[in-house]
Amino acid sequence: MMAGNRILHERVALARMAPSRFVRPQQLISSTVRGAKSMSIPAKATLATVGSHAAVRRAIDVRIRFTDGFSTTARVFTFNGLIDGREHLLLALGNWEQYAPNSSQQSVTAPLARLHSECLTGDVFGSERCDCGPQLRESVETIAATGGFLLYLRQEGRGIGLYAKLDAYALQEVGLDTYEANLALGHGEDERDYTEAAQMLDALGIGSVRLLTNNPDKTRQLTALGIDVVEEIPTGVHLTTANARYLTAKRDRTAHTLDISSARTRT
Length: 267
Ligand SMILES: [Zn+2]
Hints:
The protein has 267 residues and is an alpha/beta fold. Helices cover 35% and strands 18% of the residues. It has a domain at 54-155 and 192-238: GTP cyclohydrolase II (Rossmann fold).
């Protein structure tokens, strides 16, 4: 249980505050780290306090099939009001309707959710430089088994974009790791922002999730936005000889919970 009374207290406190200008959670976190006393930014901000609710625009059922034959039906949600203006998707999988606020079969547990950041090279072309394709494939099946949500976020290359990601690959060829390469290009180590993910969950009335992740930053940001992460469920380690350096950098640089030494290497 990572949420509980603390979150409730913060929500009550925030509910009494006047809505402030929109503030992204990363700004909140960095302003806290810097201890910028002059800034009138609350330590935490929910979607309610920042006035950034989104609404479901349309939902459409799509039958999906992976190259290994696994198939399922996803209800694909689109939205109005996502604050960065990009076309993010929420895929509702399995028996997800039990988690809808007005469901007659209301579940007592929180739904599984996965925040997947778009990776064209890994998701579509099966690039072996990263583990995005296998992560996506695994999470769809895991979520479909119990019901829940896969959020497909259009923030390629940890938020720096596709071309910059490929530029970073070139720097990795000469010895930089994935984070050092982003910094060398003038970007942050990881520029991803999960505000739109929180907006999409909020639009469906989902206030708490069991998050499929090895990345503590996702939990930190969602929690800051008022989505309770009641449990973190680690994803598998998809180790190959080609992505070993990449996975090691994720573990060592940004505290991803990856047990690489015990993972079997695929070739
Ligand atoms: Zn990738």
